[in-house]
């Protein structure tokens, strides 16, 4: 039996959905495999139209989606409304990416006669992998779930997508799927283009199924490990793109702490407490100078004023209590704490503090929820060794004043190997979905060199294929002599429309 | 004790090299880690100069390299001379790739004010991973070993490279390293830019070392599995780029078999027996029409005339005998066999044959060496089910006549999900090293969506990094407003030199 739970009331309701059986998972993959064949033969314009149709459907039925999520996630209406817009925007971005076409990395090397013989003509571009399984996260019921970026990018690449409904928002998953599936059918997509499975066992069966060609995953390291174990049992390995964990250190310089203490305190409070701190980019470690009493006092005052926050589910609330307890055991002191009533689903925000010279890897554990650890440094030289104890993160943030070039350079030098994005004088939360974005980072932030947000996320679900001395009739349109995509011709990048691929 | 063996004479000579100890591996990684820091701060022009210096050194000392390889590999002089030229050419190609700069995937999204708030400026490009371990193959002592493509591409990306000397050509490995290392020092590269370790245990210690950020590997599936097991034991997973195994089916149409029987037979004999069949792209499965007696007769006659071939080492000769025996047990008949004297290191070429309707996955096992299996089909409809039994390959080849469009389309449809390159009316051996090349394929051809040959091989050793609202002083030169590389600005691809990154 599957359940939907409202974390605000704690009410648990049985839903009218059966866990997907192994046979149904197999049937799902049969449809998806058939769809893969159709999708790859359709032109790019067909696919970008499909993606825009899905975006329109999400926008059109946004109110239904928000209502369902209000009842299942504990998140606020404005946050959820913003997230539906972001999810729709992601489908639109990937439609643009497909239309633009350079994601295909199309390249042509013409044949060359040389003293050592003829070098053949080679044409190369990226092609879809085949059916992709997507496991969304609890904390983004839209933008990183059924209607999320993994779905949009895998589909944009030309792959069918099989979704695993998230147990923490099962009704939202079902409704999102219903909306996307209906829109896809209306746009002429074949059956199997989008599929969904329910239940943990079905998720494992999905990852184990030989027809699945890749997995997109956003969630905990422990669940990722369990799925990677399933992948190790497969006859053929497949890529697993996991976005797992992140502490997101934020470092404030001495001068910035003086010049902008109020502004930084306000920004930090919003970034740490927004969405009740349940964001993978929440700044969890705040390096502030020992002298920055004004900044710390403002943070302490703000957190002390807070009431309790309802979290996404009881597991997250339990972890929050457990891990924050471990940090205190490891030497962090409680600087501030909210004072609301706590339930199985709600916790009080907290601010811990520790001197940089006492900071160890034991204090460098992610607490998912409204908590940050202040690391007070006396001297800049204390920062690099402390950062060394921080595991790979999605982001790092540096606040400094324009003239503090040496400080910036030293901190960037200490952190650049350990993160995927460096933010200056801002906050890491509120990830922009755009062409240049990178949302990934060294282990355990992610387990690959890829992004799960932004245009280049599409690369995860593609592989290169080369054609040697191919007659035009077997070539994809993008590799024929006339083409509408940017290409590399004999090593030189040529923009779309420039006609230089003619035989020579 | 380490040995150098001449497979022509079978003579085994102790070499004056100790297996690298764990402590020495650790010291190696300490130097490489320091070098990583220096390499990443040098401009691209410095690195392309370094790569060209290495190419020049290989060319200059080519005769020494060829002599060493003649004494250790059993390969012919002309093959080895060609391979040194290819190895040098690979360093030059990557120098061009570095100069051109679009491999950085540089992108800038300017800040945008919108009703939902300000979207920050994001600048993104690829940065080096850090120290890379490279395990070369036995069959390419230059182009896929110490002086090979993995070394060139990892170094081009800005990473130090730690080489594992191949036990099958240990003197060639030492000499190649000595030449490259001296050239790198002369070009001003810091100590640790190139390092080498000797012995199987050192190889394992290398892969286990926390400072190693990626592994490039060309070799057997079993060795790859052993190294992947080491990676699973690491605290942080790292990418392992393995090129492992390939059967390379080649399909001849009815009309091509009639129109070009002599030409195809000659091409096939050269492709199957060249380098004694010890090429990862050797066409191992030849699908020919049942009526193509002329083509088959020509192949049988040519193989029967052959003497025995000296292979690279005794392990390969033993495997050759074992696996070809297994194929016969699985139902393949011996159609032809060379008749030279065999030794521990040499074998006779062979041609096996099986009807397509009897073809099973048991006959679809790679035999490394001068052997091919002819699969005779009565009707085109027999081809797809037989291809279904073939594991993922680097290549497939189709011979057809211009008017046989339906035949081509059907075979491409059956094979395109299973290979990385499709060759038309040619042969898969003799891989062109160029911008558009792809040398990779679905498992077990490789274990990732990447190529190990051609310009895009560099992508394996890079990861994205994004800068948000960064002051110019912390940005890499390629991401500053004036830049000499092609970039994507607000979604539009802009060629180098076009000045459009100015703030707006």
UniProtKB/TrEMBL annotation, chains A, B:
Designated name of the protein: Aldehyde dehydrogenase (NADP(+))
Superkingdom field: Bacteria
Keyword Oxidoreductase: yes
Domain Aldehyde dehydrogenase: 13-437
PANTHER family attached to this UniProt entry: ALDEHYDE DEHYDROGENASE-RELATED, SUCCINATE-SEMIALDEHYDE DEHYDROGENASE, MITOCHONDRIAL
Species whose genome carries this gene: Microbacterium candidum
Keywords (A to Z) from UniProt: Oxidoreductase
Listed Gene3D superfamilies: Aldehyde Dehydrogenase, Chain A, domain 1, Aldehyde Dehydrogenase, Chain A, domain 2
